[in-house]
Every structure is written in C-alpha cells, then in structure tokens.
Amino acid sequence: MPIDPAVAIGAELPGRDLSWTTTDVLLYHLTLGARATELRYVYERDLTVLPTFAVVTGTLGETEPPALDMPGVDISLASTLHGGEELVVHKPLPPSGTAQSRSRIADVYDKGSSAIIVIETVTDYFTIRRSVFVRGEGGFGGDRGPSSRVPPPDRAPDTVTLSPTWAEQALWYRLCGDRNPLHADPAFAAMAGFPAPILHGLCTYGMVCKAVVDTVLDGDPTRVAGFSARFSGVVYPGETLRTSIWRQDDRLLVNATVVERDAPALSDAVLTIHG
Fold first, then answer.
1. Does the pTM of the predicted model rise above 0.90?
2. Is 183 tagged catalytic?
3. pLDDT digit string (tens) for 136-157?
4. Most buried among 186, 229, 249, 261, using CB within 10 Å?
5. What is the DSSP string of 120-154?
6. One of 178, 200, 214, 268 is an active-site residue; which one?
7. Which of 107, 183, 214, 268 is catalytic?
C-alpha cells in the first residue's frame, strides 16, 4: 500500500536545527521579484523579513530533490503536487537566526482519486501545515478531511495588483533549497503531465503574500499573523499574477489568477493581520 494511514498519521518526522543569514533572506526576497527600489527587502541595513521566508528555512542549502521517505508513505515524487500551505506566525523572523523544528504527519485525507498528506512543522517562530496532493492514491476509505473553501465576497475586490514573473524565476527559486526537477527539467515536467516546468507553488505563495503586504499593509510584514492558501492551478515562469484582495474585519481574503490564461493559481487564501 503506497499510503498506510494507520502508520502515517501521527508519525514523528526527524527534527531539524534551522539557521539562516541575511544572505538567505536577501536571496529569498529577490526570487519573489523584490526590486532595487525596495531596500527593506534587498539591502541588509534595516532588512525586514517577509513571513513566508519561514517556508524555506527547512530547505536552505539543500542540493538534492526533496525526499518522500516518511513512515507509512511510499510514493513517487512525480505523482505529487503541493496542495496547500498554512502559516501561523508566532513572532517575526529576524534577518538572521536559529531555531529548532519538529515535524509530524498530522493527517492523511482520502479524496477518492487522490490523497492528501498533511505535514505539520513547529518552531518558536512559526507553525506550518503543508498539504501534499498525491494523485492516484486515494480510495482507501479514509476521512475526506475538512473543506478548505473560503469564497470571496460577492463584490468587486477592494484592491487588485499585478506581479510579473520571469522565465528564469523557478531556476532562481530552486536556490532556496527546493530542487524538485519539476521546476527545471522539461522531460520530468512532461512525465508529470505538464508541457513545461512550472513555478514552485511556494514561490507563488510568497509573491502573493508580498503583494498583499506591499499594497494593503503599508509594506510592514510584521502585521501578518498568518497566511493560508490552496494551490488551485499552476503558474509557468514568464506569466503574470493578478492578486485580488477583499478586506473582511481582521483578515484579508485573497485570490490569485494567471492573467495570460485567466486561470486560477492561488485560491481560498486568507491572510490574518494584527491590529
């Protein structure tokens, strides 16, 4: 059985000692499209850290494709996609620092023709719940899991902003540690069912968070208390993201689409903010 929920759910994964420097933060911001006019992101003096930097702290320095060696899980990398990401910020990340992380398989959901593996990672700075979508491995009679739908209000968004990507962006983002060949190798992408390498979902996630911070939160990343989103479509390097934002009390509802194809990219996204 490729996924054995009885073994997988609750299984502890190896903890990690995390460390990062201003160089790592600067590189991350540049891979999201930060510009020379945004010194708070690209210059170490008075450097501010986007909260989504948390999602790469566990892969910094990695030079091999991500491993899927987990208790009760025996699946191919080519059959997986990033399904969603939920980040809870406990305290702002400093420009350089260390942390200890502990991880576990929080749940496994049966979606019929597919499965979702939820991996939870906790540090003093943040908690991440990452959903890994596994094609063709559902149907084992497990729990379907909660709905992640967060439909936007039935009105025009309060803010819309455009974020261009560029042809080499996935190649740059890989330097943050995600060496999945899906984002660089056309043959591997074809094997996975795509006409070309795709942009990392977490790169899209970071770009959208940055767009919200810059346009709605006065460029202040420390106001972000959390950010959750579902990856509802792929982005090809060179396409343009359209981020639509609705204000709703102490949170922002967010949706991102690909301009050129009018296709979904990030949906059911909620960014919670401090007052």
1. yes
2. yes
3. 878 787 888 887 789 889 999 9
4. 229
5. EEE-SSEEEEEEEEEET---SS---------PPPS
6. 178
7. 183
